[in-house]
Write a structure and sequence with these properties.
Layout (H helix, E strand, L loop, with lengths): L5 H7 L5 H7 L7 E3 L5 E3 L1 H6 L7 E7 L9 H14 L4 E5 L4 H5 L7 E2 L2 E4 L1 H5 L5 H21 L6 E6 L3 E3 L9 E3 L10 E3 L1 E3 L4 H8 L3 H10 L1 E5 L4 E3 L6 H8 L6 E5 L4 E4 L14 H8 L4 E5 L4 H16 L5 E6 L1 H7 L12 H19 L5 E6 L6 H13 L3 E5 L1 H4 L5 H11 L16 H12 L4 E4 L1 H15 L4 E4 L19 E10 L4 E6 L18 E2 L5 E2 L3
């Protein structure tokens, strides 16, 4: 008998009214803004009211570098939340919202999988509560106001050649990476070259996810630098008087969304910056709110620990006073075999030697997370083709690195398949508080911060950057931005900038192609190698298999 698909499992779920899910966390019905029967936002007044409550335990879920074999980080995050509730802990889950780009591209959905899902799955993977549309609109309003200001006399003397604010769209569309706007004559403005990024790479997305309240949101939006004058003076969104209207568009989107897992664990699904081209974490508001309502909060950081976890710790934690009490590192036997050189079509055959070779990738991530002073436990996300010898090899390797690996069957069994991990995680989190420290101090020069990440996390030999990039970083330091953390935009598939180099390579450079100042979000983006801030669709996009039946049932989402 074949397995049911994720969407079939989700569609068969009997969901509880969202007011009941909120009540499990002590949220009164009047503090919920319902979107139908199964989704709601929390009110700003209620969030402010609970801010002084003591915080619960924060569990960060991260992973090895992703492979086509699959790792299941979101599935493990959801499953662990269910597992903690199953052993008697009051737990909630915090994950990111899904972007339409990868949903219709090659990744599919982003609500977990199997028996460890957040529902309503179709809504979460599509328009949900409209947060991404609000972010897209606010970002593009600012873009429109820039060109409009230049058209009507350019009082701020913005240099059209030095406008750095691009437009965004929540879809993978390589044709929009580089465009020319305002063609067609005098009535359409002054032609200039620009481009589009995907919405999840927008600085507005990062700002929304790092803001604690509406006041901070508007301040950060006003700090956005959209370009420069001819004498290279920065021009901000506040200078254009755009911050107020942008805040209006984002006021509701700032409020965290509450849904549920298949096992009725409360789930806060809010925000969604990409982890390879942005900072890859759900919103600070959602995480902090959940911590004041639950004893345990399980959250994830995007892609592998070299990107998502590093940014969670060095960016999100730095700006929010959050510190994880434990870190779960997700791996699969299949993915480890791919890191050990096995082709995707041969992953079903036992190969203990390849597992041991591939564990080098796992070992580096364990070492990296421990370097922050945090305890690490490995979740082996079980696949039916895993053999006892392969699982034993992973457990032995992890033990040799001073950690423990636990086999988890949450995809097939739900909470019953992950209670062992939940028990161990709870014991760790309830133990001694970690001696957490950031990878680098605020006062370190910007280029040295980039080098620190590249050498200590990726294990690169050097960072290669043109003199113009180094000069730009020095200029930002003189302008007062030298204290900002670094957001590395790099391929998620490798510690290097070459997605084909799996495992744990050494002896390589990290080339920096471009740097961008996200003054509102409060970090500097270093774009490495060939990474694109507007992805393209694959040869056979998922959109080709997504459709809707005459009775309104969506098919093809995964």
């Amino acid at each position: 008998m074949g397995y049911l698909s994720d969407i079939e499992i989700a569609r068969a779920a009997v969901m509880r009214p969202i007011q009941e899910i909120g009540a499990d966390l002590g949220i009164p019905s009047e503090a919920l803004l319902p979107f139908g029967h199964d989704k709601a936002k929390l009110t700003a007044d209620f969030i402010a009211e609970i801010e002084t409550r003591p915080a619960g335990k924060l569990i960060l879920v991260t992973a090895i570098n992703p492979t086509p074999a699959g790792e299941g980080k979101t599935t493990t995050t959801v499953g662990l939340g269910d597992g903690l509730n199953a052993i008697g802990k009051r737990a909630a889950v915090c994950i990111r919202e899904a972007s339409l780009g990868p949903c219709f591209g090659m990744k599919g959905g982003a609500a977990g999988g199997g028996r460890a899902q957040v529902v309503p799955m179709e809504d979460i993977n599509l328009h949900f509560t409209g947060d991404f549309h609000a972010i897209t609109s606010a970002h593009n309003l600012l873009a429109a106001m820039i060109d409009n200001h230049i058209y009507w006399g350019n009082e701020l003397e913005i240099d059209p050649r030095r406008v750095t604010w691009r437009r965004v769209l929540d879809m993978n569309d390589r044709a929009l990476r580089d465009v020319v706007v305002s063609l067609g004559g005098v009535a359409n403005g002054f032609p200039r070259q620009t481009g589009f990024d995907i919405t999840v790479a927008s600085e507005v997305m990062a700002i929304l996810c790092l803001s604690r309240d509406l006041e901070e949101l508007q301040r950060r939006l006003g700090d956005i630098i959209i370009g420069h004058t001819r004498d290279k003076t920065p021009v901000t969104a506040r200078d254009l008087k755009a911050d107020g209207a942008m805040t209006v568009l984002l006021a509701q989107a700032l409020l965290p969304n509450l849904v549920q897992t298949l096992e009725y664990t409360p789930a806060f699904v809010h925000g969604g910056p990409f982890a390879n081209i942005a900072h890859g974490c759900n919103s600070v508001m959602a995480t902090r709110t959940a911590l004041r309502l639950a004893d345990f909060v399980v959250t994830e950081a995007g892609f592998g620990a070299d990107l998502g976890a590093e940014k969670f710790l060095d960016i999100k934690c730095r700006k929010s006073d959050l510190v994880p009490d434990a870190v779960v590192l997700v791996a699969t036997v299949r993915a480890l075999k791919m890191n050990g050189g096995v082709a995707k079509d041969a992953l079903g055959t036992e190969d203990v030697g390849a597992v041991r070779l591939g564990c080098a990738n796992l070992g580096r991530h364990i070492s990296n997370v421990k370097s922050f002073g945090l305890p690490v436990i490995v979740a082996i996300n079980h696949f039916a083709t895993d053999t006892e010898a392969e699982v034993a090899a992973v457990k032995a390797f992890v033990a040799s690195h001073g950690s423990e690996a636990v086999l988890c069957r949450h995809w097939a069994e739900g909470s019953a398949g992950i209670t062992d991990l939940a028990t161990r995680v709870a014991r760790i989190a309830e133990g001694t508080k970690p001696q957490f420290d950031f990878l680098y101090p605020d006062e370190m020069p910007l280029f040295e911060k980039i080098e620190t990440i590249a050498k200590r996390i990726y294990r690169a030999d050097e960072v290669v950057a043109a003199p113009s990039i180094r000069a730009q970083l020095e200029t930002w330091e003189k302008e007062g931005y030298g204290h900002l953390p670094i957001c590395m935009a790099k391929t998620q598939y490798s510690f290097t900038t070459d997605p084909a180099k799996r495992g744990a390579p050494t002896g390589f450079p990290i080339p920096i192609r471009e740097v961008r100042l996200a003054a509102g979000a409060g970090f500097v983006v270093a774009i490495c190698g060939e990474i694109m801030t507007m992805p393209g669709l694959p040869r056979t996009p998922s959109a080709q298999t997504i459709g809707i039946s005459p009775d309104g049932e969506i098919h093809g989402l995964s």
